[in-house]
Amino acid sequence: QVRLVESGGGLVQPGGSLGLSCAASGSSIFTIRTMGWFRQAPGKQREYVATITSTGSTNYADSVKGRFTISRDNAENTMYLQMDNLKPEDTAVYYCHLSGFWGQGTQVTVSS
Fold it and tell me: Is the pLDDT reported for residue 60 higher than 90?
């Protein structure tokens, strides 16, 4: 079964940056499938953040466009999310998604 493990979350001040990673294992589909990042704040529904195709085409939610950058390294079976100019409203648990599978999430807290 495919396994996804997020890492890189933490506490950062507004305007700061964080880089998230999602390591995939247990399946060969990583290199041919679109992957994405989602996030969920307490009391809110999980929302779309960004996606990246197997060949590197990207899409972003309007709320993060221009601030976040999604990328992937197929050779390492890893997806990344570089988050710059973070805002308090970015506070959430960030989840990696691949073909119906989800990671356990990593907490990002943007606060002074």
Answer: yes
pLDDT at 71: 97
Q: Determine the Cα–Cα distance for residues 92 and 69; give it in Å rounded to an integer.
A: 17
**DSSP symbol at 30:** G
> How would you write 39-81 as a 3-class SS string?
EECCCCCCEEEEEECCCCCEEECCCCCCCEEEEEEHHHCEEEE
Percent of the chain with pLDDT over 70: 100
5 Cβ contact list (under 8 Å, min separation 6): 22, 23, 25, 96, 103, 104
